[in-house]
UniProtKB/TrEMBL annotation:
It comes from Characodon lateralis. The gene is CUL9_2. It comes from the Eukaryota. Residues 205-283 form the DOC domain. SUPFAM superfamilies: ARM repeat (SSF48371), Galactose-binding domain-like (SSF49785). This is Cullin-9.
Length: 283
């Protein structure tokens, strides 16, 4: 009846709003899953609006990171994201943001075959829809995660080789993307430094509209490789390789966490020749 539909619509809206709370309960996420994934539901238009909402999508990705070790929550969020993916439209949602949380959860729950299989299916769907996402997976070390999954579960996983082949085909594009990003950012930095030097010599205003906005976005977009000259060549970690860059990004809110048996955790830092180490810190 109409009253029941109105009640479910109100409940759906309340659940979506509650995703923004800092302490979202498992029950909220699972109830949202039921309302969005129930094919018998008559809230087609309301569900369509939710599954096209950028805010709701990003809330779910954040909760995936927040509840990384909770199997039930991860499965519910993954089913909801699959529902979002059913209504995929290019460039509507930032799907690339979901890839790293998926890999982190898959690594954290690597012993659970069902969870690993569902995440592989989701990543395969994503990579099949758009090769740009396969390039992102390539850059985040997805192949290493797939190798670990195969080591744990042998040949009992479906679509692993298909996903690995998709990612392998995009390795050359990932390399090209990295080189192009480096060149573009280097050009932007050179222009900024030239303007600052000209301002210093002539004491004239910098002639770039919204220069402060441009500079702020440039700083946020620069990668680890383009920051100041590093004193190390590379960093190796025992597990969660795609998060190793979090060790050196100077952001106290990001972190690398090992995932392995007792006594197998390590961080190897390869220094440039001739570097004198005066201080090393881990927080």
């Amino acid at each position: 009846c109409q009253e029941q539909l109105d009640l479910k619509d109100t409940e759906l809206q309340m659940l979506v709003v509650s995703l923004k709370e800092l302490t979202v309960t498992k029950e909220v996420i699972q109830t949202l899953e039921q309302l969005l994934c129930d094919d018998a539901s008559q809230l087609e238009e309301e569900r369509r609006q939710v599954t096209h909402s950028r805010d709701t999508y990003q809330d779910l990705v954040r909760l995936m990171e927040q509840h990384r070790a909770d199997r039930a929550v991860q499965l519910s969020i993954l089913r909801i994201l699959n529902k979002f993916l059913d209504n995929y439209q290019e460039d509507m949602l930032p799907w690339h943001e979901s890839i790293e949380p998926c890999l982190s959860t898959m690594t954290a729950l690597i012993n659970d075959r069902e969870v690993v299989q569902l995440f592989i299916r989701f990543l395969y769907r994503l990579a099949s829809l758009n090769k740009d996402y396969a390039v992102v997976m390539c850059r985040l070390g997805t192949k290493d995660s797939l190798v670990k999954a195969l080591d744990k579960h042998s040949t009992n996983l479906l679509l692993v080789t298909d996903l690995r082949d998709l990612i392998s085909d995009c390795e050359k594009y990932a390399s090209l993307y990295k080189k192009m990003t480096t060149s573009v950012l280097a050009g932007c930095i050179q222009m900024v430094l030239g303007q600052i030097e000209e301002h210093r010599r002539s004491h004239q205003p910098i002639n770039i509209p919204f220069f402060d906005v441009f500079l702020r976005n440039l700083c946020q977009g620069s990668s680890v490789e383009l920051k100041e000259d590093k004193c190390w060549e590379k960093v190796e970690v025992s597990s969660n390789h795609h998060r190793a860059s979090k060790l050196t990004d100077k952001n106290p809110k990001t972190y690398w966490e090992s995932n392995g048996c007792t006594g197998s955790h390590f961080i190897n830092i390869y220094m440039h020749k001739g570097v004198v180490i005066r201080w090393v810190g881990v927080r």
